[in-house]
Give the backbone structure.
Amino acid sequence: MKIRRTFKKQVLISAIGVFTMAAAGTALAVPLTPTVSSTDGTVYTTSGVFNLASNGFTLAGTLVTVTFASGAQETRTWTGDNAGTGSGSAVGTGWRLSLSGDSNINPWTFVTTGASTDVVGLFLNVRPAKSVFDIVVAPELSPGSSFGSNIRDTNNPNLDSLDGPLGLIVTGVYADALQIGNVSFGDLFLTLDMRFSRTNGAGLSPDRTLSFYTDTDSLASAIELPGNNNGGGTVPEPGVLTLLGIGLAGLAAARRSR
């Protein structure tokens, strides 16, 4: 009987501890279901040659922007930390984003240790790293891209796509589509814009941890605007071409009249 009462007491203490942590909004991580969408944005193209060994080290050059509840923003450049473990990170004032290993099977970890206010936005631009987000789990859409994952869906049913503090609301928008040979397949994007909010607060509080999965692929070929030659001048709009044609025709007629 004494053993049973002791066991019940321990269970009650544990339950009270978990409830207190959840009520206080501490770093207790729970599975979250984010709202995810995609939009073309600025469309780029590449020849479609992939190097699928994309990890935290090869993402060096990625631009990471954090937005605080105060409206302030901070942008840091991702650095490769260790080639052997495939790790890399971006570190700012009161925050750190890191990844160790292949992005398709390992989580990104975002911590706000030491932040002075809530974080309401996390923006990733992998284009400077000559990489791309592959967001479709299956089937493979862009030739050579293999299967992907996004912050809501992974290709492993045993993994939670996103874990974070209880009550955190997360939305994610993938943008700036990447074409393969000027053909869009709808699975490759160059940026990810994540937004955080809570029903009883601004966003991701200080001293919290958020982990998520989203696949990236490294590209062996250049990323360009469609129609550009190695990043050359932009393609004129149809209206500009029409006006140019009218002007040249008028000039030729004027010369003939002389």
Observations:
- Residues 32-219 form one domain.
